[in-house]
Write a structure and sequence with these properties.
- There is one protein chain.
- The protein has two domains: about 120 residues, Cobalt-precorrin-4 Transmethylase, domain 1, CATH 3.40.1010.10; about 100 residues, Tetrapyrrole methylase, C-terminal domain (Methyltransferase, Cobalt-precorrin-4 Transmethylase, Domain 2, 2-Layer Sandwich), CATH 3.30.950.10.
- Helices cover about 35% and strands about 20% of the residues.
- The protein is built from seven helices and ten strands.
- The strands form two sheets. A five-stranded parallel β-sheet has the order 3-2-4-1-5, with helices on both faces. Strands 6-7-10-8-9 form a five-stranded mixed β-sheet, with helices on both faces.
- Helix 2 links the parallel strand 2 and strand 3.
- Helix 3 crosses helix 4.
- The mean pLDDT is about 95.
- S-adenosylmethionine binds next to strand 8 and strand 10.
């Protein structure tokens, strides 16, 4: 029986290929196979595009489909099927990496694979390799601290529960709003009502073609906002 291969969840950073860790590069240059996810056409090609630069020559790539649905049964079936495909590789003694945009444990499809994989192949070593998140790069581009002294930071999804969203905006000193492109106008309206628009930056396509950083949402937004967009609300003066 071959030794079970190791599985690496690898965060590749949010866009700039230079924002990948040395550890991620070492792993990508060593694994026998690389998995990518296609939960959305864009995200798939971006994580893959960044990772490709660092792969060992000739290493096979395999795409895992994650359906864009809210049907719980369909989602669970897809995660199980994907975990089964990964487990088959690991059982053959090969190691594999799963590429994720930004950090692998921040709003990532990798998080759904973890428990299923642990269940179906408990002997496999699973190693999560953190990556630089998109909001860290947003703060860096703005030269704006995410948190200082005793401040708090909430990280929320723009597509989440509205009441919870309002409460977190009120209660946290600073807020990162990710996955907000669909609800942009509604979110801007809420921020304006709460007097937070001027303290919010909208960062789109960071380090990607079409990058746009709008610092202060008290001005009118004319362009549509793309999937690769987030907001940073920083309440301090
Ligand atoms: C599924 S989440 C992935 C988050 C990722 N794991 C991370 O650590 O940043 C996708 C969201 O991340 C944010 N995002 C990722 N890359 C980005 C970029 N280059 N510019 C702006 N926002 C980005 C956007 O809010 C997007 O909707």
């Amino acid at each position: 029986m071959p030794k079970v291969g190791a599985f690496y969840g690898v965060g590749v950073g949010p866009g700039d290929p230079d924002l990948i860790t040395v550890k991620a590069v070492k792993i990508l240059n060593q694994v026998d196979l690389v998995f990518t996810a296609s939960s959305s056409a864009n995200e798939y090609s971006l994580a893959r595009q960044i990772g490709l630069k660092y792969l060992k020559a000739g290493v096979p790539l395999q795409n895992l489909p994650f359906p864009m649905t809210e049907d719980d049964q369909a989602l669970k079936a897809a995660w199980r099927q994907n975990a089964t495909d990964i487990a088959e590789i690991l059982r053959s003694g090969r190691s594999a990496a799963f590429l994720t945009l930004g950090d692998c444990l921040t709003y990532s499809t990798y998080a759904y694979l973890l428990p299923v994989l642990t269940e179906i192949i408990p002997a496999a070593p699973i190693i999560s390799v953190p990556g630089i998140t998109s909001y860290q790069q947003a703060a860096a581009r703005l030269n704006r601290p995410l948190v200082m002294t005793k401040e708090s930071l909430a990280i929320i999804s723009g597509g989440g529960d509205e009441a919870k969203f309002g409460t977190l905006l009120d209660q946290s000193d600073n807020v990162v709003i990710m996955k907000m492109y669909r609800g942009r106008d509604q979110i801007v309206e809420t921020l304006r009502k709460k007097g937070l628009a001027a303290k919010t930056a909208l960062c789109s396509q960071l380090d990607l073609p079409g990058e746009k950083i709008v610092d202060g949402l008290d001005q009118d937004l004319t362009d549509p906002t793309t999937y690769f967009s987030l907001m940073l609300v920083t309440k301090r003066d």
